[in-house]
Write a structure and sequence with these properties.
The complex is a heterodimer of chains A (about 250) and B (about 80). Chain A is α/β, with parallel strands linked by helices and about 250 residues long. Chain A contains 8 helices and 11 strands. Chain A has a single domain, classed as Rossmann fold, CATH 3.40.50.620. Chain B is mostly helical.
């Protein structure tokens, strides 16, 4: 039986149109719908499935961020996690919080809680870093199975199918290990209303990075955040001759 | 659960699901309310049972709709190489 740690991040909902602040210091987050990072939902779902197959016996959900991060932890609990740990990082510190800090925090918690598997989403849809799983494995000195699209337990190891360019790679990996979930690993369940109510009774502990001895002082400075360039409008050409002339004008033919 | 409380429970669950509806929660809620009000005078237990069955079907459809919408958006954003 394994203990599983899942990392969940609170991000701006995937369906929301992102707007950049006028002073270019970041994106607008006030009054914007937030939800659990979709890849982390897949990670939570996989942990819950491992529990349903009696491979895992306890699922611990962790989130680093401001007070509102507890909402996504509640969602994780409603999906089937057993307990949650909220590592509070708020304000300016949260804006410069990087995967390196998060992976140090995850690694510390993984050791304290004596977990056998760490499952995280492969990347968050807000910063698209795709680093946390890899660095957590590094700090713990554990094997890593990234971009997992299938996980199977065999005796004392796991067999993971990984999504790679143009195909799948199957690897065998010792436990404890760090896994990052790819899109096709599973279809996450919807946190139902009764389960959300029940999740309110599950334990949620709040700690700070200081309690874990992790330094979250900034390593980067945000210089500016800009909108991607707008695609220029095209034009419709009446016939082939005009097209050829136009292409010649631009030096394509 | 009595039939009455099952209907109320179904309404609550649909109301909750409506929060994520693509055309907006208000759009969904008006229609949800109308659909329930339209049949509120029904007293035949068999017919009510059928309606609850239909409601449960809508719940499943909505969950699938949200799941697919998210999956397709992510696929388009991160995987579409074609």
């Amino acid at each position: 039986m394994a203990r599983v740690l899942v990392g969940v991040k609170r991000v701006i909902d995937y369906a929301v149109k992102i707007r950049v602040k006028p002073d270019k210091s970041g994106v607008v987050t006030d009054g914007v719908k937030h939800s659990m990072n979709p890849f982390d939902e897949i990670a939570v779902e996989e942990a819950v499935r491992l529990k349903e197959q009696k491979i895992a016996n306890e699922i611990i959900a962790v989130s680093c961020g401001p007070q509102q991060s507890q909402d996504v932890l509640r969602t994780a609990l409603a999906m089937g996690a057993d307990k949650a740990i909220h590592v509070e990082v708020a304000g300016a510190e949260y804006e410069t919080l990087q995967p390196i800090h998060v992976s140090k925090i995850l690694a510390k918690i993984a050791q304290n809680e004596k977990v056998d598997l760490v499952i995280v989403g492969k990347q968050a849809i807000d910063d698209d870093c795709n680093q946390t799983a890899q660095m957590t494995a590094g700090f713990l000195d554990w094997p890593q199975a990234t971009y997992a699209s299938k996980i199977e337990k065999k005796d004392d190891h796991i067999v993971v199918k990984r999504e790679i360019d143009g195909g799948l790679e199957t690897i065998k990996c010792k436990i404890p290990a760090v896994i990052s979930a790819d899109l096709r690993l599973n279809e996450p369940r919807y946190a139902t209303l009764p389960n959300i109510m029940k999740a309110k009774k599950k334990p949620l502990t709040k700690i700070t990075p200081k309690d874990l001895g992790v330094d979250v002082s900034p390593r980067i400075q945000i210089v500016k955040v800009e909108e991607p360039p707008v695609r220029q409008a095209g034009s419709i050409i009446p016939d082939v001759d005009t097209l050829v002339t136009k292409l010649k004008e631009k030096g394509h033919a | 659960m009595s039939q009455r409380s099952r209907v109320i429970d179904l309404y609550k669950r649909l109301f909750h699901l409506g929060k994520d509806y693509p055309s907006g929660a208000d759009f969904f809620r008006v229609r949800l309310h109308n659909a329930f009000m339209k049949n509120s005078k029904e007293s035949d237990p068999d017919k009510i049972e059928k309606m609850i069955g239909h409601g449960e079907f809508v719940v499943k459809e909505l969950e699938t709709l949200y799941m697919l919408k998210k999956y397709r958006t992510l696929k388009r954003r991160y995987y579409d190489s074609a």
